[in-house]
Design goal:
With 118 residues, the protein is mostly helical. Helices cover 61% and strands 0% of the residues. Helix 1 packs across helix 5. It starts with 15 loop residues before the first helix and ends with a helix.
């Protein structure tokens, strides 16, 4: 591959929507709702409606942290820890992840939990 010869660059066939679909297949409607919460809050200010898979890795980290626990039984504090734990400490410390947007995201996920309980 060469930036001097773009005609020599082979297509990657990467499909960001497929990456989202795989995540939703794995985690169901809750996964879909959580990635939508990430996209809505956009704590990294990088979602422009095109890069639909921007936050898939963060959602995967949240589900990895949840493990075998029941999402509906998580406390607000646990959800806050899950959200903050999906970001690297450097992203938070250096201000890449906006604290107000992290708080908004946390609240959106708490609302998802509460909606499932009802």
């Amino acid at each position: 591959m060469s930036w001097l010869r773009p005609d020599k660059i082979t297509p990657s066939n990467y499909d960001p929507q497929e990456r989202v679909n795989v995540m939703v297949e794995k985690y169901g409607q809750l996964g879909k709702n959580i990635i939508q919460a990430f996209n809505d809050a956009d704590p990294l200010h990088c979602f422009y409606g095109v890069n639909v898979d921007e936050y898939v890795g963060y959602v995967n980290k949240i589900f990895a942290q949840i493990g075998d626990r029941d999402f509906q039984t998580l406390t607000n504090e646990e959800i806050n820890a899950l959200v903050r734990g999906s970001f690297s400490p450097d992203q938070i410390a250096q201000g890449f992840a906006d604290p107000a947007d992290i708080a908004e995201l946390t609240q959106k996920i708490i609302t998802l939990r509460d909606a499932q309980i009802e």
